[in-house]
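Target protein
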Amino acid sequence: MRQTVARTFFGAAQIHRLHGRTELAAGLLRKSAGLDPANLLYRANLEAHFVQRKALTEGVAMFQQLAAEQPTNSLNYLFLGRLQGRLREVDAAEIAFRKVQELAPRWAEGYRAHAELNLRANRNLPEGLALARKAVALEPTGSHYYLLAVLSLRNQDPAGAREAAKKAVALSPDQQEYREFLQHLEAMPGP
């Protein structure tokens, strides 16, 4: 019943968004997320709403509320951390991503998001590398191998970067960015 009501609110939110009633849409998305805690789509749309409106601080407050209401839901902390990262609140985002890892230790996304945060903030790069390795171990995708390649290079390991980039290209051959990065790495001097 709760999931049905959540879907109804989500559909209504989409209609209100199309007609420019963004505040009403956000409220309905919030209700959807509250009613269906396991649904990633509702939270992703809520995050997109705040990003598009450039209302990141409001988004952080909304996801803090959701996290307070659903303290064992890793999705709330993931989106909270992502918004905090966009605001360059690196310490707060790191805490949120660590909570994701604690609540969902077998979910690669918490490790990937934390590794990307470290990379973007240019801080704790060895830890970022370890987090990227964990993401790859849990979910060996092209995007995770690409992140591992970038962090390997930033940690002065061009051979490891090349190896990871080759795997990224093998898993995602249509990703031009991955192929270009591999070409860059192969053109570098050294082993």
About this structure: The CA atoms of residues 153 and 161 lie 5 Å apart. The two ends are 60 Å apart (CA to CA).
